[in-house]
């Protein structure tokens, strides 16, 4: 983006798709607590009072029991905030269907080899970094995440008593000569209790949410849409079906960089959809840190069962020397086993990644 407008969106953990991602990553973490070498591919669907678990888990230990899975699901839903028993989707009333099975022995044999860990599947992943924010992330997605996270924080703290868990945010930024110049538009759609007025919601967004989250980017000329469809009392999985892995652009760079198409949540580190994307982000950040570019996009591609990547490429988007950046990255080990070790991906840390972006959080290993 050299000159023009760019828009990115975010969602809260109460969004139906994020409810599913949260449950999937909680099951992954619980599996890794029991067996750090567990291989997990967990998918979740939520609609009305139904939660469906599907996918595969491979482990040398006993896999999670039905009772344990039931407890994990209900705890996640309760923690998100769906606790109103008069509604169809709430933590105590959901019906859980467990379709999780064992990992294919053919995939297991390809991934877990005698002296190496092969890639869990073929595919391509992208990592991106930029100097335009302290987080090394594009400004539109950074601000959209701030708005969504603050909505959830204010709801849970009781600062706003009318808010419900489901919400979406969107931020449009004007760029000039490759640099962000101004926030042009903001959209906030938040689920709410029936008794609150739309005027009260808008007043909170204008007087509190925008200035606190946008900070120096806030100004009176922003075009603001607050609940543009009107009342938003029916939300979450009761208002819309949720499925794991449908927020891959929210999870990554808000559309500012390319995406390989593979989702993150519910997958252990042998799945390069996740670990490869994390390490590509780490590599792109190191290119920026070394001063080799102001923007950097790294692509890595794998073949199933093969440890060494099929390809690694670098695009500095005209802000650096691609050949020099590529030479620098030759010293990085993109094999799945090396990534698992370097980023500590056999630990139960994935709940920290699920909501408000998998990148730009300083506590995560690939951000350091």
Describe the structure.
Helix content is 32%, strand content 24%. With 368 residues, it is α+β, with helices and mostly antiparallel strands. It has 3 domains: 108 residues, GMP Synthetase, Chain A, domain 3; 95 residues, GMP Synthetase, Chain A, domain 3, CATH 3.30.300.10; 107 residues, GMP Synthetase, Chain A, domain 3, CATH 3.30.300.10. The strands form 3 sheets. Strands 1-6-7-8 form a 4-stranded mixed sheet. A 4-stranded mixed sheet has the order 4-3-2-9. Strands 5-10-11 form a 3-stranded antiparallel sheet. Strand 2 and strand 3 form a beta hairpin. Helix 4 packs across helix 5. The two termini are 26 Å apart. The model has no long low-confidence stretch (mean pLDDT 95).
In short:
This protein folds into three domains: about 5-10 and about 140-235, GMP Synthetase, Chain A, domain 3 (2-Layer Sandwich), CATH 3.30.300; about 15-110, GMP Synthetase, Chain A, domain 3; about 125-130 and about 270-365, GMP Synthetase, Chain A, domain 3 (2-Layer Sandwich). About 30% of the residues lie in helices and about 25% in strands.
Largest sheet: 4 strands, mixed
Q: Can you give the mean pLDDT? A: 95
Identify the CATH class of the largest domain.
Alpha Beta
Order of helices and strands: EHEEHEHEHEEHEHEHHEEHH
In CATH, the architecture of the largest domain is 2-Layer Sandwich
CATH-assigned fold name of the largest domain: GMP Synthetase, Chain A, domain 3
The shape is flat
Low-confidence stretches: none
- Structural class of the helix and strand makeup? alpha+beta
Our count of domains comes out at 3
Q: End-to-end span in angstroms?
A: 26 Å
Strand order of the largest sheet: 1-6-7-8
Radius of gyration: 21 Å
Report the sheet-strand fraction: 15-25%
């Amino acid at each position: 983006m050299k000159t023009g407008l760019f828009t990115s969106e975010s969602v809260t953990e109460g969004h139906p798709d994020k409810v599913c991602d949260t449950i999937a990553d909680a099951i992954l973490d619980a599996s890794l607590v029991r067996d750090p070498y567990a291989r997990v591919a967990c998918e979740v669907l939520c609609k009305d009072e139904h939660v469906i678990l599907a996918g595969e888990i491979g482990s040398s230990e006993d896999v999670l029991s039905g009772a344990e899975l039931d407890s994990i699901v209900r705890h996640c839903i309760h923690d998100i905030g769906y606790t109103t028993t008069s509604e169809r989707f709430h933590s105590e009333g959901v019906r859980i269907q467990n379709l999780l099975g064992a990992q294919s022995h053919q995939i297991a044999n390809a991934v877990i080899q005698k002296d190496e860990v092969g890639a869990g599947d073929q595919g391509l992943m992208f990592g991106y970094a930029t100097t335009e924010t302290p987080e090394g992330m594009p400004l539109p997605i950074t601000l959209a995440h701030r708005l969504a996270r603050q909505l959830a924080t204010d709801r849970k703290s009781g600062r706003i008593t009318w808010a419900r868990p489901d919400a979406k945010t969107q931020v449009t930024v004007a760029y000039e000569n490759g640099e962000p110049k101004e926030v042009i538009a903001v959209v906030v759609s938040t689920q709410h209790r029936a008794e609150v007025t739309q005027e009260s919601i808008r007043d909170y967004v204008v007087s509190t949410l925008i200035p606190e989250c946008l900070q120096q980017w806030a100004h009176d000329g922003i075009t603001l849409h607050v609940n543009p469809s009107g009342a938003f009392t029916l939300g979450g999985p009761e208002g819309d079906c949720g499925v794991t892995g449908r927020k891959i652009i929210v999870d990554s760079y808000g559309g500012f960089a390319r995406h390989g198409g593979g989702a993150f949540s519910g997958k252990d580190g042998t799945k390069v959809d996740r670990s490869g994307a994390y390490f590509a982000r780490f590599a792109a950040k190191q290119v920026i840190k070394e001063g080799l570019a102001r923007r950097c996009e790294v692509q890595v591609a794998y073949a199933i069962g093969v440890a060494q990547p099929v390809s690694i490429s670098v695009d500095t988007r005209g802000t650096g020397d691609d050949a020099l950046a590529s030479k620098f990255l030759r010293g990085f080990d993109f094999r799945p086993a090396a990534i698992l070790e370097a980023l500590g991906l056999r630990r139960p840390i994935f709940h920290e990644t699920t909501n408000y972006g998998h990148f730009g959080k300083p506590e995560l290993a690939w951000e350091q």
